[in-house]
Write a structure and sequence with these properties.
With 57 residues, this protein is mainly alpha-helical. The protein is 49% helix and 7% strand. It is globular and about 45 Å long.
């Protein structure tokens, strides 16, 4: 039997205070992440990457 690892999830405010993201990335995260929802760091980075790759119209 293998043990399932738990992955830490953080809310919008915690991610905005993280040193893992630049100030520019924190600004984007404050706009795209939802209040009351939690995200893993991997999910957050994926959402950030998706947002920054969107075509500007």
């Amino acid at each position: 039997m293998s043990k399932k690892e738990t992955v830490a999830a953080f809310n919008k405010h915690q991610l905005a205070q993280s040193n893992q993201f630049s100030n520019r990335e924190k600004d984007v995260l404050s706009a795209i992440l939802e209040e009351g929802k939690t995200y893993t760091v991997a999910q957050t980075k994926e959402q950030l990457k998706t947002f920054l790759k969107k075509e500007v119209i």
